[in-house]
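In the design runs reported in the main text, the only information available to the sequence generator was the tokenized backbone. The following block is the verbatim input for one such run; it is reproduced so that readers can re-run the procedure and compare outputs position by position.
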């Protein structure tokens, strides 16, 4: 088999076509796409997606931009690797292509011209203009290459993706992810929702030490942690200080559950306190560069303000950005912690974090449909889980029902709306109970049950999926009993109670 028809992982194939990995898994299950040991060939992809073309990625790019914006990430800064890394990837790919005897001439010429283009770009001082010029140039050149009866456009597209992003496989778990732009290996893994072992993320502790089994990496920053000569000879590097130049295979441990996440004590600073409405604020904490919070999506921590005011709060952000930690705080007159956040807390004030704790985490290995039921501020841990699920890109479908006591209880409606616009497999419904979900009378329980039955009427297949419930204890326990009553086992109904 030539290098132009090599086997691809499902993550790489999904990226190539511009679909969710779950769609490919469904096609394989139905026999519409043939896989070989969990991998697919470019020729097989082209058979299953005959209309796939190099230039048809406009809509996919739009989806990525919307999703990135919804996650609060900066796309442009990660769009391109540095010129040296690009040039090395081009050279390595050229070596591979010389081994292939067919369908190579046009793309080999393109790579030669790309190398010359990179040389010219290195003389420019305006990096942004240079990147935009390269993107325009690539689009024109690849279109021209395809006009000469090139047999497999997906082969061109895959090789271009290999220049722009390196593919990393983690052993022995089999997880994989992409390293884009100036990201380190650790940053690429965290963005993909992969909980590798790490500590400071700054090259001091050595906890992210991993072995490079195959491929080429490059050191991108100085680190104080000293690797022994034996470790260096075996291929060990620090993931937080190296990037992938070519496709890479790593030997590294992956956290399998909450027992693998250490207890941490971190003094963070207030980045901002943003009012969402009269009764809700978004608290943004930032940890020191040398001491970042490691946690699993859905977990909570203990916050301490002014040396004495404490509260347990679920983390409302993705583990992929471990320095910037978000919390949703509800106004509770008379509650000392809430009063301090709403009335006195200022930027740069120190907040002590202890944790994480809790077992309300995503079951990562499942490919079943996911149903999330958020009551009021239960959206905080649900949001963390959703962002993690979307970064994994493995679920067949994701459904979010945000049920508020009132209209104002749905305090961040634009975020799930953006996800629904961006992702074909994400569905969002907002519902208003019209009464306080923290205190349920018999009549209110009946009304809430009617609302939950409406979800089942809309999605009778919910019993084939996993259900995650978070919010005030009364509403959450009622929903838990309801879904268990449908025949769902306890191993597929997960619940988190909220207190603040």
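Verbatim output:
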């Amino acid at each position: 088999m030539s290098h132009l028809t090599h086997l691809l992982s499902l993550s790489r194939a999904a990226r190539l076509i511009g679909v969710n990995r779950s769609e490919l898994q469904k096609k394989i299950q139905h026999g519409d796409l043939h896989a070989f040991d969990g991998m697919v060939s470019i020729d097989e992809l082209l058979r299953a997606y005959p209309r796939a073309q190099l230039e048809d990625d406009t809509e996919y790019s739009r989806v990525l931009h919307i999703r990135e914006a919804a996650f609060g990430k900066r796309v442009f800064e990660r769009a391109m690797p540095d010129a040296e890394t690009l040039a090395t990837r081009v050279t390595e790919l050229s070596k591979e292509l010389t081994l292939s005897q067919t369908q190579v001439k046009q793309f080999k010429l393109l790579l030669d011209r790309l190398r010359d283009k990179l040389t010219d770009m290195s003389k420019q001082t305006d990096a942004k203009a240079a990147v935009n010029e390269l993107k325009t140039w690539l689009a024109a050149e690849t279109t021209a290459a395809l006009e000469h009866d090139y047999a497999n456009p997906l082969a061109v597209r895959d090789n271009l993706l290999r220049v722009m992003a390196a593919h990393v496989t983690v052993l022995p778990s089999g997880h994989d992810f992409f390293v884009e732009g100036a990201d380190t290996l650790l940053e690429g893994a965290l963005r993909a929702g992969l909980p590798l072992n790490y500590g400071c993320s700054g090259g001091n502790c050595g906890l992210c030490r991993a072995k490079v089994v195959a491929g080429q990496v490059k050191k991108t920053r100085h680190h104080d942690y000293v690797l022994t000569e034996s470790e260096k000879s075996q291929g060990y590097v620090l993931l937080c200080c190296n990037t992938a130049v070519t496709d890479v295979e790593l030997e590294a441990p992956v956290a399998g559950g909450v027992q693998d996440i250490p207890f941490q004590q971190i003094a963070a600073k207030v980045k901002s306190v943003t009012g969402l409405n009269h009764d809700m604020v978004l608290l943004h904490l930032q940890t020191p560069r040398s001491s970042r919070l490691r946690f699993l999506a859905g977990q909570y921590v203990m916050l301490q303000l002014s040396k004495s005011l404490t509260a347990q709060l679920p983390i409302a952000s993705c583990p992929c950005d471990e320095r910037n930690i978000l919390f949703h705080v509800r106004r509770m007159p008379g509650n000392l912690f809430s009063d301090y956040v709403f009335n006195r807390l200022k930027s740069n004030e120190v907040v002590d974090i202890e944790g994480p704790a809790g077992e309300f985490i995503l079951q990562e290995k499942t490919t079943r449909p996911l149903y999330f039921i958020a009551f009021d501020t239960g959206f905080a841990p649900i949001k963390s889980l959703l962002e993690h699920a979307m970064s994994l890109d493995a679920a067949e479908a994701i459904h979010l029902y945000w049920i508020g006591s009132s209209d104002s209880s749905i305090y961040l409606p634009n975020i799930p709306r953006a996800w629904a616009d961006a992702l074909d497999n994400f569905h969002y419904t907002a519902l208003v109970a019209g009464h306080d979900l923290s205190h349920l009378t018999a009549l209110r329980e009946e009304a809430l049950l009617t609302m939950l039955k409406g979800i089942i009427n809309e999605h009778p297949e919910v019993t084939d999926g996993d259900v995650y419930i978070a919010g005030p204890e009364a509403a959450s326990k009622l929903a838990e009993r309801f879904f268990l009553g449908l025949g769902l086992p306890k191993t597929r109904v997960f619940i988190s109670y909220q207190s603040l």
